[in-house]
Design a protein that fits this description.
2 domains; alpha/beta; four-stranded parallel sheet; 21 strands; 10 helices; FAD/NAD(P)-binding domain
Length: about 375
């Protein structure tokens, strides 16, 4: 029997498991293959929804479904996170002490926001990367009556469009509250343009200019002084604020760091095959990779589809049949009721179009359709 083990029950791990269960349905029924998912939680969270929670446009309970309900029949699911990867002997060891052997291993453990990496950020800034943080951001926005709002971005971070989205959404939020004449929004970004993707930056900067949103590039946060309400940059500048909104720097999961499998918890990954570098039967997808592409749900989705096809072919024929081409698709909320998108891959940069209400409504629809997406039905 061939054994496939997937570590991580987020977007990438769930889509991959369902993809494989359908491709290998005959082998699963015949007992020729086993498919096991190991997760840290029995709940699956729709992480992009946290942005809407921060603006009071989604409830927290809308973000969750039972993980087991999202998985195809034939998939063995355990809430038992992996604590040790014994790659030389083809097995992993979980928190409960159980050992799971594999012929093929896929690691999709995700990433985590690390505001503590910038002294003072955790105590003084608001963000949207946990339920608790999104709820506190919602309260802070609701109570804000005017002053300077500073947006500070750390790298790397997941959801690449969040710095832009939260800025545009705050503009419309304060506009609806009649506070625009009392609010100044100042956006910062750590490289020499307002977004890492050049064409996205070329679209966003004129939008900021049109709305009167000021911005500063080459701003890497060094520390936050809560008493003085200032952000100090590595470049030597000082940014005053009355409300600080951060996109914190991220790391991969702690277990990856602890096991020495990748710098900052991001694993060295082949850009085409998604193999862990140096391992023919270990694969990495989603935020866990160190690939120079966006850490986004769509990235994990497209990687999972490519890897599902390859793993099924490996089980059946002992060879892979395709390469992941770096495909990513990201919606960009450009306010409360307009959106655009960025679609790109390794070879083709994004070409954002003017925002429309139709794309915004499509994005809201996708918030509901996500559950069919992770089931592999979209």
């Amino acid at each position: 029997m061939k054994k496939v083990v997937i570590v991580g029950g987020g977007t990438g791990g769930t889509i991959l498991a369902n993809n494989l269960a359908r491709r290998l349905a005959h082998e699963l029924r015949a007992g020729q293959v086993s498919l096991t998912v190991l997760s840290a939680s029995d709940k699956h969270m729709y992480q992009p929804g946290l942005l809407y929670v921060a603006f009071g446009r989604m409830e927290v309970d809308e973000l969750y479904q039972d993980q087991a309900s999202l998985l195809e029949p034939g998939i063995v699911f355990h809430v038992d996170p992996v604590e040790k990867f014994v790659l030389d002997k083809n097995h992993v060891v979980t928190k409960s002490g159980k050992r799971f052997e594999y012929d093929y291993l896929a690691i999709a453990t995700g990433s985590r926001a690390m505001p503590d990496m910038v002294p003072g950020m955790a105590e003084n800034a608001h963000h949207v990367y946990t339920v608790e943080a999104a709820a506190k951001t919602c309260e802070a926005l609701r109570n804000f009556q005017g002053g300077k709002v500073a947006v500070v971005t750390g790298v790397p971070h997941k959801c690449p469009m969040v710095p832009l989205e939260i800025t545009f959404m705050m503009y419309d939020y304060f506009k609806d509250r009649g506070l625009l004449d009392k609010v100044r929004i100042h956006y910062t970004y750590p490289i020499g343009r307002v977004h890492s993707l050049e064409n996205v930056a070329k679209w966003a900067a004129p939008e900021f200019d049109r709305l009167g949103i000021t911005y500063e590039t080459l701003f890497n946060a060094k520390a936050v002084d809560g008493a003085k309400k200032q952000v100090l940059s590595e470049e030597g500048s000082v940014l005053d604020y009355d409300l600080l909104v951060a996109i914190p720097p991220h790391k991969g999961m702690e277990v990856i760091e602890k096991e020495g499998l990748g710098k900052s918890g991001f694993m060295p990954t082949n850009r085409g095959t998604l193999n862990l570098e140096g391992r023919d039967n270990v694969f990495v997808l989603g935020d866990t990779t160190n690939l120079p592409i966006s850490k986004a749900g769509s990235t994990a989705h497209y990687e999972a589809e490519a890897l599902g096809e390859n793993l099924a072919a490996l089980v059946r024929h002992g060879r892979m049949v395709r390469l992941y081409e770096g495909k990513v698709f990201c919606f960009i909320e450009a306010g409360k009721d307009r959106a655009t998108y960025a679609s790109f891959d390794y070879a083709n940069p994004p070409q954002p179009k003017p925002p429309t209400k139709a794309i915004h409504w499509f994005k809201l629809a996708y918030n509901r359709l996500y559950w069919n997406s992770v089931r592999g039905l979209l």
